[in-house]
Amino acid sequence: MKKIAWLLAAMTLFALSCSKPGQNDKKEDKKQDETEAPITIDGDFTDWADLKGAVSARNSSESLWEAVKELRVYAQGDYVYYYIRFDKETMKEFFEANDTFPARVNLNTDGEFSSGYQNYFLQGYDFIIEMSLGNGAGGWATAENGTLCQRINDGWSELLGENSGLTIGKGNGYEYELMLDRTIFNDAVAKSAVPMPMGNTFQTSMRFYETSSSGKWEELSNMPNADGGYGNLLEVTFSK
């Protein structure tokens, strides 16, 4: 009897210590699903279609600019995602001209709008990220040349140079998506003379340019915009 009791106890312990076939796999799959990035930077924009929590701006009917039709922004985890839809004819002209298509992402991270850079939008912002959306050879660039600057004492101070991993993008047709790494951003900002890290809520906008024959950047579009001029920054909160 003692021997039988010992065998039953051993079998019980074995059963408790072992998972059912596929049980761990299901837990692992659930963990992967929870942490999976909602947007893949691959030039396929279908993952933006029904994305909940994204904020957006459309070109105003009385806008001074026509090149950009829509801007969407979404933030989750360590990343901020941008989607831009351009005017088809404008993009055709850009590719034919082999333009590098400069762009700026503007960011306000301290929730205060009376400081920072006061030009071009109705609210001030403290950071810009400059990059090229065009490759200069009739196609899209990957925006890996993004440089980060902060507005300090009425001037721009560079915090990150090109190829830091801060930004990456992909274009297809007349659409483009861009990803910003918040960890890299905050690591750089922490070393600034005036640290202003990106928390769970921030404000953002974008500016777009064309390159003149002399190499000068000329204003092409601004998003968001309002009737006859510039608009307010978009307020974005990281999704949980």
CATH class: Mainly Beta
| Global shape | globular
The name of the CATH topology is Immunoglobulin-like
Determine the fraction of residues in helical runs and give it as a percent range.
Answer: 10-25%
Main structural class: alpha+beta
The percent range for strand residues is 35-45%
When the domains are counted, the total is: 1
> Per CATH, which architecture?
Sandwich
* Terminal CA distance: 56 Å
- Rg calculated over all Cα atoms: 24 Å
Mean pLDDT across the residues is 86
The total count of strands amounts to: 14
How many helices in DSSP terms? 4
What order do the SSEs take from the amino end to the carboxyl end, as H and E? HHEEEHEEEEEEHEEEEE
Question: What are the segments in which pLDDT stays under 50 over at least 5 consecutive residues?
Answer: 1-34
- How would you sum up the major sheet? 7 strands, antiparallel
Give a written overview of the molecule.
With 240 residues, this protein is of the alpha+beta class. It has one domain (38-237): Immunoglobulin-like (Sandwich), CATH 2.60.40. It has four helices and 14 strands. The protein has helices at residues 2-17, 23-35, 88-96, 182-190; strands at 55-58, 68-76, 79-86, 102-108, 127-132, 147-152, 155-160, 167-172, 175-181, 201-211, 217-223, 225-226, 229-230, 234-237. Strand 12 (225-226) and strand 13 (229-230) form a beta hairpin. 34% of the residues are buried. Mean pLDDT is 86; it is low at 1-34.
